[in-house]
Amino acid sequence: MMKTNNSNLKNKLLKSAFILSLIAVFSFVNVQPASAHCDSYDGPALIDAAKALETNNVDLILKWINTDMEAEVVPLFHKTYSLRNGDKEVYEIVKKHFYETFIRLHREMEGAPFTGLKPAGTTAHITVMSDKALNTGDFASLLTALNKHVNGQLQEKYNKTAALYKVKDNSVEEGRQYVKAYVDYTHSVEAVHDLLAGGGAHQH
Fold first, then answer.
1. Domain ranges for the chain
2. What is the DSSP-derived secondary structure letter of residue 118?
3. How far is the C-alpha of 147 from the C-alpha of 133, rounded, in Å?
4. Helices in 111-171 by DSSP H: which ranges?
């Protein structure tokens, strides 16, 4: 019985890794906006920044930046907090500057460019769901949604390539359409293999 349970657990973990790797692949293929998560006002970094200002607890945001970046962020945080009860217009200007500096450094830590703060609601739905899973502890619902999405994406790529395979030698134009679909399809499969073989990395 214990052996069976261990086997089932292993299969579930492998399935989860496969699904998440596929999502990463499709993020590359579909060229998702690079900064839509951490740069948005409803993203976890800025939510922590807002909470830090509400509670005067700068420690809440230090996890998002490197140690050598604290010298720039911490004094600016305290300056911003000191203006909370003053002129509202001034406070909003300084607060935005603090947010921009904080997120710029966070993005720099990740090796990604900062292109400005994004409004709430611009985060990809799947990312919102992944954050929700952490908040609620309901990972099963996230896996179900991911599985449905991945199956649809792979099936679409396969169907397109398979249909063009049948007519690839009819003309040069049809052949080129096939090659384009073939490259997209096979590169996605290869990328999944590489991710599973080498391990995934955090991508935005």
1. 44-110, 138-204
2. B
3. 15
4. 125-136, 139-165
Say which residues have a Cβ less than 8 Å from residue 78's Cβ, sequence separation at least 6: 58
- Closest Cα partner for 38 from 102, 98, 134? 102
- In the chain (204 residues long), the average pLDDT of successive 10-residue segments reads 56 52 45 58 92 97 95 97 95 97 93 89 80 89 83 87 95 94 86 64 48
What is the structure's pLDDT at 131? 85
Output phi, psi for 10, to 5 deg. -60, -40
What's the one-letter identity of residue 191? A
- Count of CB atoms situated within 10 Å of the CB of 43: 23
Say how far apart CA 124 and CA 102 lie, in whole Å: 22
Q: Name the residue among 39, 40, 81, 36 with its Cα closest to residue 60.
A: 81
47: Cα separation from own chain's centroid: 16
H/E stretch holding 78: helix 70-82
Q: Distance between CA atoms of 191 and 187, rounded to whole angstroms?
A: 6
Query: Measured on CA atoms in the order 75, 81, 86, 90, is the torsion positive or negative?
Result: positive
Terminal C-alpha separation, the chain: 41
Contacts of 154-160 with C-beta under 8 Å, sequence gap 24+, read: 154/22, 154/188, 157/181, 157/184, 157/185, 157/188, 158/185, 160/185
